[in-house]
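Ticket #4471: structure output looks truncated?

Reporter: J.K.
Steps to reproduce: submitted the chain below (260 residues) through the standard prediction queue, then opened the result file.
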Amino acid sequence: MYIYSGIKAYRTEESTIGSVTREEKRERRVYRQAQVRSLFDSIAHRYDFLNHTLSSGIDILWRKRIIRLLQQLHPRRILDVATGTADLAIEATKLNPEQVIGIDISIKMLEIAQAKIQKKNLTKIIALETGEAENLRFESASFDIVMTAFGVRNFENLELGLCEFHRVLRSGGTAMILEFSKPRRSPMKQLYQIYSRYFIPLLGGIISRNRSAYEYLPITIKEFPDGEEFCKILLNSGFSSANCYPQTFGIASIYMAVKT
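Returned output as attached by the reporter:
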């Protein structure tokens, strides 16, 4: 079993993105929750369009793969953390659960999510609310599945958030996490570095009119502890097993962790 040694002491200094305060933990910048909330509120109106455009629609396939991996579990209650505009929560209804709860810190994102859910007549299955990953209001052992798509790298306290995932899961429950990662092999490694460093901020900034939000994205991807390192963090958060499934040359990864 992998054991993660935890986070060392950190120092606070100014970020290169506007006036965002950052904390450096093992060379990973951690942004204050209020800053992240404000950032996502500001791009909520273009979030879905930019997600699908910048990934050429591949993000839709990644979410479908998550649901296929979960099909054999037949979950009754599902929690979608950092649900955003609820794409993953909506996809999860194909598992025929009794209830899906989606939480997010961005009210603007939840407003868009609610409109999508109403349009699809899913209000009896999906419930939305504001909530913080590091301080879930739910009782221990409340859910069969806790999942998130592109959310964990925005947690102010990554380890605390994952421990909360573990706490609210029932014994035998599964945490399913989709997150961007870093390609390891050439030439995809070099191409992706160029794409994320220059193209994403340029196009994202033009369409959303908030370039800083799309400068934030490649920074958080670059500094996120992906692959084996993230699996170690999951194990140290209490999970008995953690597996990583790289997607599309390693641009993203699906992590599946089990509580026993």
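Triage note (M.O.): checked the attachment and the full token line is present. The longest helix spans residues 188-208.
Status: closed, working as intended.
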